[in-house]
Input
Amino acid sequence: MRYRTAILAAASLLGCVLAQTATAAPSEYDVKAALVFKIAKFVAWPAAGAREPESFALCYVGDAAAGRSFDALTRERLTGRAVNVTQLASDGDPRDCQILYITLAREAATTEMLRIAAEHSILTIGESAAFASRLGGVMALRTDAKRVRFEINLLASRRAGLQINSQLLNLATIVGRDDATSASQMPVAPARSSP
Amino acid sequence: MKLRASPVTVLAVAAFVIGSAQTAGAEQQSDAHDLLDLSVEQLLNTEVTTASRRAQAAGMVPAPLYVITQADIKRSAARSIPELLRAVPGLQVAQVDANKWAVGARGINRRFSNKLLILMDGRPVYSPLFSGVFWDIQDTDLDSIERIEVVSGPGATLWGPNAVNGVINVITRRASDTSGRAVHASLDGLGSSSLQARFAGELGSSAAGRVFVKRSELNGNENVLGMRADDAAHTRIGTRLDGERGNSRWLLSAEGYDGKSGSMTTLALTSPPFVNLRAVDDTVTGGFLNSQWSHTDAAGRDTSLSASFERSIRDSYFFDEVRNTWQVDLQRSQQTALGRNVMWGLSYRHSQDQIDGEPPISIRVPRATVTVAGGFVQGEFNLIPERLDLVAGAKLEYESLSDETHFEPNLRLRYRVDDRSMIWASAARAVGMPSRGERDAEIVGPFIPPNSVRNPSPLPIIVTVSSSGDIQAELGDTFELGHRWHSDRQQVRVESSLYYTKYRRLMRAQPGLPLCRPAGTPAGPLGCPPGTGFLIAPNLLQPNGKANSYGLELFGEWWPRERLRLTGAYTFQRVANTTDVPTLELAATSPEHQAYLRASLDLLRAVSADVNVRYVDVNVFAGIPSYVAVDARLAWAPRVAVEFALVGRNLFDPEHLEYVSEIGDLVPTPIERTVQFELRYRF
Output
């Protein structure tokens, strides 16, 4: 009996210890990168015909914090193809991307890039309340009260020729001009003077 | 079988259950790879940690904040930073001539306004000579600017000295955020041209660098005497290197400039014809080095350290100056149990100069060092959850010209009405830095001709201004109230703010008894002795002026369509003097009303159009009539890397006057209408 109690006690102690270390919440970008990866499985791009690329192009505009999380996806495979992650500058050329992710800090600088992306079949994903509702982006992953919120602009997705699986649509808030649901957070201005 | 649980067993089981429940309930693993095993739904339910940011939602700042973005800069007709600032409510921007600008805030716009703090990547750029900004040496590559943040009002606590009526912070783009090579060329109908080339690239895996070269030549406008004297030519080179490693970021930037700017000056002489017109060239050479390092640690505390050095050699029509300025700044911010966010900082600025005055200016102390040292603390406290926050800060600052230490408190309240609107209020004191000019300069001029409105006597009058030796820093106590609202889908946004400022210890020119020259005797009741050629009206600068100013700043933005954006700004301001003798401030007050309207339209696939209309009310004191000015830009980008643009500036009138110098040293120059052609090419 004592022997068993001892094991039980040890196991529970271990359980507590494990619980402590395991409850560290993952970083925002790790979760967002995982979401982007999963979302891509529910989206169909128009057939590119002869130009079918060998690898899946995921581009992001942001700094190293986002980069670390997205770069980790290069070890994965999406729709049978290797994932190629590229970092773009805010005045870069997005036309070879299938997914274009724009971080909040860079959003104000990428209006030109978004205009170009809207004319090609690119899944644009942003982080602000205005991104999907007003700026013409297709999706937005907003961080609100420690969780990531998911928005989709159907009009923008149709313009880009993208087909989104209804299962994904059910998990998202549909936003856009024709809609009553609101995005209620102001755009974020970055810190006073970050180098 | 009887189950009998011993206390140890009970505890052990309980611990195990609680332990496992925690593990299961947490639903998360800190291993990023494991996240990929979760479904979309599970990921959306996962709690995340975000890096600590001093960033605040622009909608939550309890002060009038206006941000000029990179897109605004690219699509505007502006060629320089002052032109970009015209869109900001609360700022008064007047173009003096082709190469000079007067930028002020909240009604006070002397050419060297001493109540506005301008920062370039955190580096203050005001000159202690006049406590103002020489805009000709801030002519950096506009394409490299990421954004310009303007906070009206006393940001003294956080930003630095001299921020009585506002802070303008120009932030350049990270080198890693600029791609490849680019060239930008422009040419206008007056013959002004500019050429910029920029190269950017990676330096290893965690750093990047950018270099630019800029050459601009401005052809002058015709002044009121029919002459062109404001030609200018400037060359500038600059570089920025930056990188990130783990949770640290660093930046190193340097720029060098060399140029000359022309003016036509009116100099008062002490013998007939008493006035001399002279076309002169200001030449300036110099450069700066700026460095910053910031780090966020595991506990979410941000630390940032910056240091900069600037040297400039200026040969101006009134003075020659060699100046070396050092600045060091440390800031720390963290979340605490007490307050949401607590920040503190220390800064030290040391500016050493050698100034030689040329007639009509003489400098009594040719060599001096001006130091400003300060520390601040600011905390954000939540008073009513989700509703009311208090931001309280204070700065302690020592300034060497006045040899005074000042305490500058800054209190702000923010009340969230609902998730679309908020009200804020503030009370703050800010200190305006005294300048070397105010303490050590003697100016002869302006000249007032005889038998004129301002001088009905038969003798010409020459006004002189000199320091009384009593130097104190000017104080401004400001009370503000503001409101911010945006519509459901953010198609409409409106911001308004009201302010009231009490100024004390303003520099006032106290007139003394007129002197008869060449006799040197005061003009008595019987006038001047025979043989008198002219009168001197001496003025002593005393820091005992008082004034009140109040105003309203309104800003609105509307997106009626996805491709059309309309913005508007309206400013009302009034400065009232409360002492009998006008202060220098009152002499340079701005028009009471100002309005600005802008429309940005994405026309066809690759065509964009921007038009802005601005109205500036009559400036009674300076005698400048009201004016309307229209700028327009039409751009076509046939390819991603090429853009052609046609820009029209000041299209409404063939020419209009914006500024008349309050000390009468420059011949007024109206600004002419021009059309400019621009090319941007990336390769």
Observations:
- The first helix of chain B runs from residue 7 to 26.
